[in-house]
Write a structure and sequence with these properties.
Elements (H helix, E strand, L loop, with lengths): L23 H8 L5 E4 L9 E4 L2 E12 L5 H6 L5 H11 L10 E9 L3
Antiparallel strand pairs: 1-4, 2-3, 3-4
Length: about 120
């Protein structure tokens, strides 16, 4: 697997953590504990950065690059889907006309809730 080790230097962020999870369905999945990772075409957060969703906080624990072809059903479950095909169809419905290219790289942001 070609996941980038957290100790390696990460490139600069391409967006802010506030834009990491914006879809209503995805926000609900995070709040319900069904979603613990999100993939974006850029890097939106640093390790240790805190994301707030509806007055709940989540800390980013891992950030690494992954190709779409490396996705597993376990990765899809972290995203709140049953399997890779379900995740793929959801992404393609959100981004009409976007090709699903196995070599395309995305940034994985894994997070967990901060307990009060």
């Amino acid at each position: 697997m070609t996941n980038q080790n957290e100790t390696n230097a990460l490139p600069p962020k391409t967006c802010t953590i506030e834009r990491l999870i914006t879809q209503v369905e995805d926000i609900e999945k995070v709040l319900n504990g069904q979603k613990t990772a999100t993939r974006r075409n850029g890097r939106y957060a640093d390790i240790g950065e805190v994301m707030s969703l509806q007055n709940r906080q989540y800390v980013v624990e891992r950030v690494y690059s992954q190709s779409l072809g490396e996705l597993t059903d376990e990765d899809a479950r972290q995203e709140g889907y049953t399997n890779v095909e379900e995740y793929k169809q959801s992404i393609l419905s959100i981004h009409p006309g976007m090709p699903w290219l196995p070599k395309m790289r995305v940034w994985v942001h894994e997070f967990r809730p901060i307990q009060d």
